[in-house]
Structures are given as structure tokens and as C-alpha cells.
């Protein structure tokens, strides 16, 4: 069988179908399409899930199709038709070769860490790219880069290489022609360079460029972009933690601060920079070990390459950090986890078996991004669309089963469950809705879920009060709330002040009850707030009657802060109404616009929904 032909095998499991196809690397570009357009269209048209591996060694790539039997058959026929047409055009295209000469100072950017960049360019273009090794003596000399493949593949690969060189040259020119080095640089063993031992950076005496040394090659240091008009928000939920090994979530809103604390170089990474993750537990990798170790191993990988990153290289960093967690283990199993990096305008996500990750492009409605397989993990990538695009945000959903037994979840159901809450800036409600979807899909173990959104600061999901200047700081707000109390599992049961009965529900049960109430409020545009407060709230304010049900009165920010600080001090107040309002509720109250309803809020006394009324 010729290597350019596809091979497939299929099996069915009940009404579910599964087919694996092996296609030549040169023709996968025709299957994927520009920016993944064609493969996403195939998924929509056929109803099947199509995954193309990224880490196959050799001339072939693995294509996995899953879904109903009809959807799998339909997708396989469509793929065969696309590949057949592409093979016919390839058969008439002779082998081409192109030689480029690139400055030795840029070769490190082209090769990438461990060859990741050059391998990614070869996969994406379908061309073979070789960098000569016989001219490495002079670091300033040009290096020969040879490209083999079809005319289209050669042209695409050469353009990708030229783009890398152009970006590097632009970064150098932006630094200006001033050769005077910054403070801290001194002479070193390299004649044309100065070195700063503190930052581990080199300064070129000829060009004024900053560089770092990678395997004997000087690579330009990228300056990260600060996207000040992009914002990230996130929320988590853990349910059923009393049913087995408790899964956990991790949210890092600012990776730059963590890297600074760990003394790792991170200025080459864009702002904002965050991470959301959910972890389960295995014998090889206990959940606490994974939570503590993953982000540090990931940051070490990112900080080790200070030049520009190709999109594909981020997958290598994430999957590599997952493999680092099991380094030295003989079990051969991956940790149960899913994680997403939110960097500048990009989101990169992976999930290992026992977890699931879904990226979505959306606004009020959303559409899932098709994942691909790499090193045993599912990977997906999305970039924030331009302002004004109908899809104004990137949504992230990550979930892990504490026992590693997560049942399959359809991405379309995840979109329907979490999209509305993320559009309205309620990530905790989205995380709870994600866990509920997993329960409905058949997962019975403890679950950890995390949701996030990367969007423009003026995204339509957040409506601002046009009468209040953006910079204005409020001193007083009036709010009302619905409160569902819970028992922490330790000590005496709290008492519901409304019916005087002990509270026995756990926090996750209270959160799920509040999610149902939130959805009822949204459906009625909060017109039913007073009635729901009267029937459901376990706060004394629910007994006020009429429209005042749930009213907490006016909160004075300065007074609340002073009372909280003075409480417990000698001579300080011991019982003040406003000082009893949990800090979490006060914080949320002052972040709301008038009439706006909060996300699900958890405090030490219960689960809250807060609406600002004045």
C-alpha cells in the first residue's frame, strides 16, 4: 500500500462509532484547512469528532473519528474524498527544493527548544526543513536552510521562516540604534557581547540587541506584549468531595508574579497571563503532588525559551509539564488533569485521560474548538478574535474526575451549559453548570471544574452604568441577597434563623441549589427576586416582607472596613449589623452596577446571590 494512501479500521460500541485513519503528512494540510476551517466545518456537517495527532513520528499522521456510527461513516467518506482530490493534484507536482541563508543569530528561533519550532513548521507546511550543521563555527555567519517538498509546501515553509526572521529583525530595530548598554552588563568571554549575570542576558555591542545563549547560539529575547484591553476572569467548583479522593482546582491569575517569586525570567510572555486547571488523583500522581508541582514545572519550561514561541510549541510545554509530573514513575499512566494557559490573546489547553477540556469561541452563543491528540493528551488552541467580531471572547471549560473515571461529555452540551454564564461574567456559575453536565453524562465520582473567559474589556456581556464614570469609586451601595447556608462538616450544625432548624447540607449541595435559583432569576429578569428570597433564603432579611425581602440596607465601604478591623480588638464592637456581612459579599457588592445580579458567591456562612439596588 502506498504511503500517500489512507488506511482505516473501525469498530462500534453500541450506537457509538470509532474509526482510525492514517494519512500522509503532506495531505493533512488539505484536511485541516486554513486556521482549522475545513476540519471544523467537517465536524459541524457530519456531527462527528475528528482529531489529528501532532506527535506522530514518520510520514503518516493519525486521524481519529468518533461519534454515532452514521456520523463516523459520513466523516470518513468526506475525508477520503478530500484526500483523493488532494492526492491527484499532488501526483502532478514535482519535488521542489529551496535554499535559504539565514543569519546565525536567528537560527535558534527557527529550530526552537528541542527542535519544537522546526518540527511544527514541517508539520504545518508539509515540507522537510533542514538546517546545515557544517557552518556553526562562526555565530554571526549565515546558516544554510534547505527546504524540500511540493511547490506549495516549500513556499509555505519558506514564508514561515521569513516571518520569524522579520519579527526578530523588527524587535531588534525597535530597540533603536543606541549601543550604550543598560546597567549591569560587563565584558565576558564572547568578544562581541556583554553579559548580565543577574538577568542572564547578553547585550550585542554591534546591534544593541538583547539575547540569551541556547546551545551555543545567541537567540533574541522577545519582549512580551501587554494587552491592556484584554481581561481574564475565572471561577471553580468542587462537588462530591465526600464520595472519594477529593479532586482540586488551581487558578493562577498572574503567572508573571509567580515566575518573579520563583526567580524565573518571564518578560518574554504576553500580559495578561493566567492558568486554570482541574486535578484528580492516581496512585502514581496524588492530587496534592499534581496541584503543587504542575505550575512550577510548566513555568520552568516556559522560562527556558526566551524567544518567540510558535503556537504549536505551547502544546509541547503543557504536555511536557504533565509528563514531568510522572518522571521516574514506572506506572506509565498520566496524571488525571486538565489545564489551560491564557496568555495575551491566546488560549492553549490540554487534558489527560480522566479529565476533559473544551475551548469555545463565542459571545451569547458559542462553538467548540476541535481538539487534537498529542502525547496521550487532547490539545486545543484558540485566539481571541478582533474587536467587533461576532465571537468576542474565548471561553474555557476544564473538568476532572477525582477517581479518573470521567464519562465522555459532548462539547456541544458544554457550550450550552457554560456559554450563557460566561457571557454574563459568572464563571463560578459556569463551573457548577459544567459539573452538572458531567453528572448527567454519568460521572458519579467527585468532580473538580474550572471555567474562564478571555475577552475584550468592553465585551457586551458586562453592561456598565453610563451615569457613573469608570474611575469613580463608590462609598455606599444598597444590596439585597438570597442566602443558602451549609455545614462545613466539622463542629455543630448551624441553625437556619428563618425556620430555626439545623442546617445539614454541604457546600456543594448549597451551590447547586443556588445555581437553580440563579437560573430562575435570569429567566424572569429578577422580577421574582422577592418571592424566591421569601421561599428559599436562609437569611433573617428574608422576613422583611414584600419588596424588601433580602434587603441588607446601605453598605458603607469605609465603615465596613473599619468595623471589620476593629472587631475583636479590646474595646471594639462585638455585635454590629454591618460587620456581620461577610467580606466576600461586601467585595462583590461594590463591584456591581445598579440592578446587576452577582455570580454565585461563597462565604464562611453560606452561598449568596447579591443584587445591587442602590
Automatic annotation (TrEMBL):
| UniProtKB keywords | Isomerase, Repeat, RNA-binding, Rotamase
Q: Which SUPFAM superfamilies match?
A: Eukaryotic type KH-domain (KH-domain type I), FKBP-like
Top-level taxonomic group? Eukaryota
Q: Does the keyword RNA-binding apply?
A: yes
Show the Gene3D superfamilies listed in the entry.
Answer: 3.10.50.40, K Homology domain, type 1 (3.30.1370.10)
PpiC domain mapped to chain residues: 474-614
Segments of this protein annotated with the region Disordered: 1-20
Q: Which protein, by its recorded name, is this?
A: PpiC domain-containing protein
Amino acid at each position: 500500500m502506498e504511503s500517500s494512501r489512507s488506511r482505516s479500521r473501525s469498530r462500534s460500541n453500541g450506537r457509538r462509532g470509532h474509526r482510525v485513519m492514517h494519512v500522509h503528512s503532506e495531505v493533512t494540510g488539505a484536511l485541516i484547512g486554513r486556521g482549522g476551517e475545513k476540519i471544523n466545518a467537517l465536524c459541524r456537517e457530519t456531527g462527528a469528532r475528528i482529531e489529528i495527532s501532532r506527535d506522530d513520528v514518520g510520514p503518516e499522521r493519525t486521524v481519529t473519528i468518533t461519534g454515532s456510527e452514521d456520523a463516523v461513516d459520513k466523516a470518513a467518506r468526506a475525508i477520503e474524498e478530500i484526500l483523493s482530490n488532494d492526492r491527484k493534484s499532488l501526483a502532478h507536482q514535482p519535488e521542489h527544493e529551496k535554499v535559504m541563508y539565514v543569519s546565525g543569530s536567528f537560527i535558534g528561533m527557527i529550530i526552537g527548544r528541542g527542535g519544537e519550532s522546526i518540527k511544527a513548521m514541517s508539520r504545518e507546511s508539509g515540507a522537510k526543513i533542514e538546517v546545515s550543521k557544517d557552518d556553526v563555527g562562526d555565530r554571526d555567519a549565515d546558516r544554510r536552510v534547505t527546504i524540500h517538498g511540493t511547490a506549495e509546501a516549500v513556499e509555505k515553509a519558506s514564508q514561515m521562516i521569513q516571518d520569524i526572521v522579520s519579527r526578530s529583525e523588527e524587535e531588534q530595530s525597535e530597540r533603536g540604534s543606541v549601543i550604550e548598554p543598560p546597567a549591569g552588563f560587563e565584558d565576558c568571554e564572547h568578544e562581541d557581547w556583554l553579559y548580565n549575570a543577574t538577568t542572564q542576558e547578553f547585550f550585542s555591542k554591534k546591534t544593541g540587541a538583547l539575547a540569551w545563549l541556547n546551545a551555543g547560539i545567541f537567540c533574541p529575547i522577545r519582549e512580551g506584549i501587554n494587552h491592556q484591553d484584554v481581561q481574564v476572569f475565572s471561577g471553580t467548583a468542587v462537588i462530591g468531595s465526600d464520595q472519594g479522593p477529593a479532586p482540586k482546582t488551581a487558578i493562577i491569575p498572574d503567572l508573571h508574579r509567580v515566575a518573579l517569586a520563583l526567580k524565573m525570567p518571564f518578560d518574554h510572555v504576553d500580559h495578561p497571563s493566567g492558568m486554570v486547571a482541574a486535578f484528580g488523583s492516581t496512585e502514581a500522581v496524588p492530587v496534592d503532588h499534581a496541584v503543587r508541582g504542575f505550575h512550577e514545572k510548566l513555568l520552568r519550561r516556559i522560562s527556558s525559551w526566551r524567544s518567540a514561541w510558535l503556537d504549536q510549541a505551547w502544546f509541547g510545554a503543557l504536555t511536557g509539564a504533565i509528563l514531568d509530573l510522572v518522571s521516574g514513575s514506572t506506572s506509565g499512566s498520566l496524571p488525571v488533569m486538565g489545564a489551560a494557559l491564557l496568555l495575551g490573546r491566546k488560549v492553549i489547553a490540554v487534558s489527560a485521560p480522566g479529565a476533559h477540556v473544551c475551548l469555545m469561541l463565542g459571545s451569547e452563543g458559542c462553538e467548540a474548538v476541535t481538539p487534537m491528540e498529542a502525547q496521550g493528551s487532547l490539545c486545543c488552541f484558540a485566539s481571541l478574535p478582533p474587536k467587533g467580531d461576532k465571537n468576542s471572547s474565548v471561553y474555557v471549560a476544564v473538568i476532572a474526575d477525582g477517581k479518573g473515571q470521567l464519562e465522555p461529555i459532548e462539547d456541544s452540551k458544554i457550550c450550552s451549559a457554560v456559554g450563557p454564564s460566561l457571557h454574563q461574567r459568572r464563571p463560578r456559575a459556569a463551573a457548577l453548570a459544567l459539573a452538572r453536565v458531567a453528572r448527567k453524562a454519568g460521572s458519579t465520582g467527585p468532580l473538580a471544574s474550572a471555567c474562564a473567559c478571555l475577552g475584550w474589556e468592553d465585551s457586551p456581556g458586562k453592561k456598565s452604568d453610563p451615569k457613573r464614570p469608570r474611575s469613580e469609586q463608590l462609598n455606599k451601595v444598597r444590596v439585597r441577597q438570597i442566602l443558602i447556608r451549609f455545614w462545613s462538616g466539622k463542629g455543630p450544625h448551624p441553625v437556619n434563623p428563618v425556620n430555626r432548624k439545623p442546617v445539614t447540607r454541604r457546600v456543594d449541595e448549597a451551590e447547586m441549589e443556588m445555581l437553580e435559583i440563579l437560573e430562575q432569576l435570569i429567566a424572569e429578569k429578577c422580577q421574582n427576586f422577592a418571592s424566591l428570597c421569601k421561599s428559599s433564603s436562609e437569611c433573617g432579611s428574608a422576613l422583611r416582607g414584600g419588596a424588601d425581602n433580602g434587603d441588607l440596607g446601605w453598605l458603607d465601604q469605609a465603615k465596613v472596613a473599619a468595623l471589620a478591623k476593629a472587631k475583636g480588638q479590646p474595646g471594639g464592637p462585638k455585635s454590629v449589623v454591618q460587620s456581620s456581612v461577610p467580606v466576600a459579599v461586601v467585595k462583590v457588592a461594590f463591584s456591581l452596577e445598579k440592578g446587576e445580579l452577582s455570580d454565585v458567591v461563597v462565604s464562611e456562612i453560606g452561598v449568596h446571590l447579591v443584587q445591587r439596588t442602590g
